[in-house]
Fold this protein.
Amino acid sequence: MSEELVISASKLDEKANDRKRYFIRLNFNERVQHMIFLICFIVLAITGFMIKLPEDIVSKFGEAKDVVFYYRGILHRIAGVVMILVSLYHVFYLLFKPAGRRWLVDMIPKFKDLHVMVGTMLYYVRVKEKPPEYDRFYYKQKLEYGALIAGATLMSITGLLLWTEEMWPKFVLDIAIIVHGMEAILACLAIMVWHMYEVHLKPRKFPIDNMWITGVIDEEEMMEEFPLHYQKIMADPNLQKIFIQQEDEEVERPRGIFARGSQ
Amino acid sequence: MRFQGLMIIKSCMLAAILVMLHFGVAQAQSEVLTDTENCLLCHRYPNMGRYDKSGNKKIYYINDKLFAVSVHGKLRCKSCHVGLDEIPHSNVKKVDCSSKCHIKEPSTGKEFSHENMVNKYRASVHGVDAEINPKRNPEDLPTCKYCHDNPMYRPPRDIWGKSEALSNETLARCLGCHTESQWAERFYSHFTHRMRKRRSQAEVVKLCTSCHEDKEKMARHGLESIQTYKDTFHWTQVQYGVEDAPDCISCHVPLGYSAHDIRPRTDRISPINMANRVKTCSNPGGMQSCHPGATPEFATGRVHAYGMKAQIMAANNGKNFLQDQDITLVVERAEKDFSPEEVFHYKILKLIRLFYKLLIASIISFMLVHQVLDYMASRRHHKSH
């Protein structure tokens, strides 16, 4: 009899431990920032590259092409202003919100990142057996984040210069045109090669990593992808409060194309 | 008696025929041109024409109705086609648009002529005059008819032309007093013609580039191809058919200038001379107001992209290019046209572009290699687990 009790008690225990734990990668505020930035980026890229279309494609717009051009300009400016506002808010977020400050501290490049980068490369070319253990943000994210800040700053400045063209010497505008155009090409290609791979094409992420909507990843993925951060969280109850979400706390989880299959 | 009756009937019929004929002729005269020189005796036949020595087909047919409502419909043939005294015509002279055409110009009462325009044109960049404006390759230059091609039908545009109904209604009002419809129509066209753009912006660019994009032809005159315009936002707007988009004449012939009087940019009266740039960009009082707040710093910058001349000047001030006979003239003019400041600007812009090209190539190829390696590594990793 006592044996039975022990078994049932351990089963209960197991159940309690079994409650699935999720780890927060992006909080709600950051997800909204990402969403707005993403929409602005797509609108800006489409309406921006429209002025570089070859003649025969432009003629396909037919009679309405001047109307298309008018709304293209308006949309580009609206999306540009919204993107600048989101970027400014992000700076405010980094400096004045606790979650933002944590983000900033974790994101600042350190010498260790170089070490991790070299280690990863060696793992890629099979010199090392295992990849280095990654923290919350490692070189891939830091490089992309840095590029995003540099790109957004340059695009905002040159965009505003071109918007207020009559106030500047033509030579300044000529530079702004080149920088705005080249930076746009660089940003779009980088997003396609670097970011699209990470969240769409990478094995086990295909067709899309739904973290940008849910903001969380499960324990298995956390242990595999960010082991160092996982260990830090497990060792510190304060971090656990911030980064762990129990299954029964969660509200509805998106299904359909965003559901993650076997993972 | 019977005979007399027949006579009366006969004379009545004759009278009727005469009356009908008279009206018929009168009717015909009010619709077609008055051919006092009897040229239509031959030229009314649609098949009239011949092949010239170079094999080109020449058509000598005149559609009298179309001619009557054309800009020159009031003129007699010989007013412009001087000579033509023999048949078949062997003493034909080229039409000279500056000749006097025996029509009274209503504001002065003098004989009308396009002489004013022709004189301006002869002194302009496009014109040629043996004494005041000699040119090296006069055969390349456009004649009057190159631009004034007067096609039979060109759809009216802008301002008045946007609505055909507006034309009809206005013309109907004219006809209330001016009952001679052919006159009213011609006068109406003459007047509203000046309110219309005959060519869309894209058509203007097409006309100008038909010569100015020909690199060899331009090099013969020391000019560079106007492809440099197509690197500007101005051209993008023209491509999209934006209202008031700036075409060639927007800047080269703004308000107060004549298309017949285009001068080189070094000429003080040229609208693109540095002294006149602010006015040209802001175009006060004109239909297009593109940059109303233009400052001298903004307006005196380079408008077209830098092209061959900038390249020549940047490459050792043109000395390396001097061997190339085809472009000696271009080099000469580039040396006259380009300030050291512009050459410096060109070099800086080129450097920035090169920097970005290298940056994009290196970053994107690093990313590609990195991600391919990552893909292979994670495939390996998942297989082993």
Remarks:
- Chain A has one domain: 20-258.
- Chain A touches chain B through 39 residues (CB under 8 Å).
- The mean pLDDT of chain A is 87.
